[in-house]
Here is the input.
Amino acid sequence: MKNHRGTCELCQREGVRLTEHHLIPKEEGGTFLETVMLCPPCHRQIHNLYTNREIALRLGSIERLRDDDKIRKFLKWIRKQPATAGVKMKKSNERRRKKR
Here is the structure.
C-alpha cells in the first residue's frame, strides 16, 4: 500500500500522500512487524533525526514517536502546512555526526 492519499497517522493531516513506515526498521528485524501510514515529510523527519537503531530501541510505536520532543516540535510545525505543500528537509547536524 504505497502512495495513496489519506490521513497521516503521525501528524493527522488529511488528504496527504501516504507511505508505509516500519515502526521497527527492516534493517533491525522489523520486516514483518507492524507498520503505519505516514506522509512523506513525517516519514523523512523520523529518519533524518534518528538512526534505524535508535528508532528500533526507543521509538517503535506511534505513541512513542508522538511523545518524542524533537518529533513533537516538528508535528507542531507540519500540522500548519497544507497537505499539498512540498516540504524540503535535511538531516539534523546531530544525525549527520552519528553517521560518521
Q: What stands out?
A: The radius of gyration is 13 Å. DSSP finds five helices and three strands in the chain. The mean pLDDT is 88. The first helix runs from residue 40 to 49.
